[in-house]
Amino acid sequence: MLFRNCAGGVVFYGDKVFILKNEKGEWVLPKGKIRNEFLAHETAVSRVREETGLEVSIVSTAGETSYEFFSITRQRPVCNEIIWYIMEAKNKDFVINKDEGFKDGGFFDVEDALKLITYSQDKALVSLSFKKYQKLRDKQVAYV
């Protein structure tokens, strides 16, 4: 089995979360493979920018997920292990990277996004990340 280390972002703007529709019609979060010369947080920010056009800042860690699939091109099983970060978009201007195979995407109310997101572990990640994001945001407001 091929193991790949990846990183991605759960991106919020206000009370909305950003999700993408991939070439298979699945609603997912932006992520990508960590290349040798990059750290996980650098990869996460870079992949979010490449896939969505969004400028983001990392607010906190979100957790880790993993999944396995059979790669037809590699003719072997692959396990993606993903480190996730809670991110805040600097604005809501995005551009879906169609060259990467994405068909659609945007900011959705969290409840609506949870209905669209394809994989249950991504749904749980978004739900938990939103709660953590709200707490961090509320603390920040309290100090202002």
How would you sum up this structure in a few lines?
It is built from three helices and seven strands. By secondary structure, the chain is of the alpha+beta class.
**Percentage of residues in strands:** 35-45%
Number of beta strands: 7
Specify the helix fraction band: 25-40%
Rounded to the nearest angstrom, the radius of gyration is: 15 Å
Low confidence ranges: none
| Global geometry | globular
Tally of alpha and pi helices: 3
Broad structural category: alpha+beta
- SSE series: EEEEHEEEHH
Biggest sheet statistics: 7 strands, mixed
Q: Distance between the terminal alpha carbons, to the nearest Å?
A: 50 Å
Return the average pLDDT rounded to an integer.
94
